[in-house]
């Protein structure tokens, strides 16, 4: 008779244990912002063409303060702008006494790098290539180590005014400037 209460109690504990949930809900993929339009930031290399002004047309890099330095007009804020918005800002500066009716084209020649850390063979900074996912970023960094969690990673992305970090599947697209952390597997 003493076996029945012990078995019943064990089954009750097992059933209740299956109903528990963790108190912290993971961040969803949707919580990490993915801007619809690419905005410029430090490290982006830009091809700027001022039509009819070969001496102003050149390759410029957005510096750490988020600006580009051009002849005649000096430093122009670029951080947070689209290429079209930057072209208009340059046109306004040039039209203020330097060039009559300027026409400017801005294209991204090279995106700012992404960073990958954790369980990859060669962690570090790498140039961004359009269409990258967490998996392709890991491949560029020499592949996963044997201890790596290959199905997801922690990605930190700059959102307006703050950095947002969350777990994302390995097939999720990354953006220039993202920091990817490949976690270690425990089993």
What's the helix and strand layout?
Blueprint: H1 3-18, E1 45-50, E2 58-61, E3 67-70, E4 74-77, H2 83-95, E5 104-110, E6 114-118, E7 124-126, H3 134-140, E8 152-159, E9 162-169, E10 179-182
Parallel strand pairs: 6-10
Antiparallel strand pairs: 1-2, 1-5, 3-4, 6-7, 8-9, 8-10
Domain Polysaccharide export protein N-terminal: 33-108
Domain Soluble ligand binding: 114-166
Protein name: Sugar transporter
Strand content: 25-35%
The share of residues in helices is 10-25%
Helical stretch tally = 3
Fourth-level CATH superfamily of the largest domain: Outer membrane lipoprotein wza domain like
Q: What's the N-to-C terminus distance?
A: 41 Å
Question: What is the count of distinct domains?
Answer: 2
**CATH hierarchy, class of the largest domain:** Alpha Beta
The CATH topology name of the largest domain reads Outer membrane lipoprotein wza fold like
Largest sheet: 5 strands, mixed
Catalogue the unreliable spans: 18-30
Helices and strands: which structural class?
alpha+beta
- Overall mean pLDDT: 86
Shape: elongated
Give keywords:
elongated, 187 residues, alpha+beta, 10 strands, three-stranded antiparallel β-sheet, Outer membrane lipoprotein wza fold like
